[in-house]
Amino acid sequence: MGEKSAKKKQYILDKARVVFSEKGFKNVTMKDIVDACDISRGGLYLYFSSTEDIFLEVLATESDEDDDEAINAALSGDASAGDMLALFLKEQKKDILRKKNNLTVATYEYYSVKKQSVKDNPLKVKFDTSVRIVEKLIENGVDNGEFVCENPLGCARNLMYVVEGLKISSKTIGISEEAIDRELMYVLEGLVSDELNS
Questions:
Q1: Domain 63-197, CATH among 1.10.357.10, 3.30.2310.40, 3.40.190.10, 1.20.58.480
Q2: Cross-referenced PROSITE patterns, in alphabetical order (predicted)?
Q3: What is the DSSP letter of 119?
């Protein structure tokens, strides 16, 4: 694919992302994307054959980093494990609160009806990557005396289940920033022993 074609394809994906974030997955038609891109239907079909093809490509561009790179980035630098975990959770909170260009509803709509193996599901891959990052941060915190935790993997899984629940709640029943902070702090308080607080 030439440079001009690659730019056109990326333009379509960028516009489609906005459409999916506004309308979900199941309510989007090829006409919606044609209108958003201000191109002909034929021009769109040169790149994609269906809304599903477009959506899956939009999701594929969502993953910012390779799993190992994400884990290494979380563990690099001079910051403490607690600081790194706080930064990780701050990013999660921004994602929970993001109103524009948020694909949460569309993604859950798509995967609630599509039968796909668990290992190929991008939601599962993203969740597992986040669990591994948090697990490594907790292990580092235990090693340097910041945290007390008998089961870093279990704690990491629990924290990410809370984050996923908050994402869904923010899009379905609504949740305040204070409530998000409270729920995340509740999980984190379990990592810090009374001895470390005094």
A1: 1.10.357.10
A2: HTH_TETR_1, HTH_TETR_2
A3: G
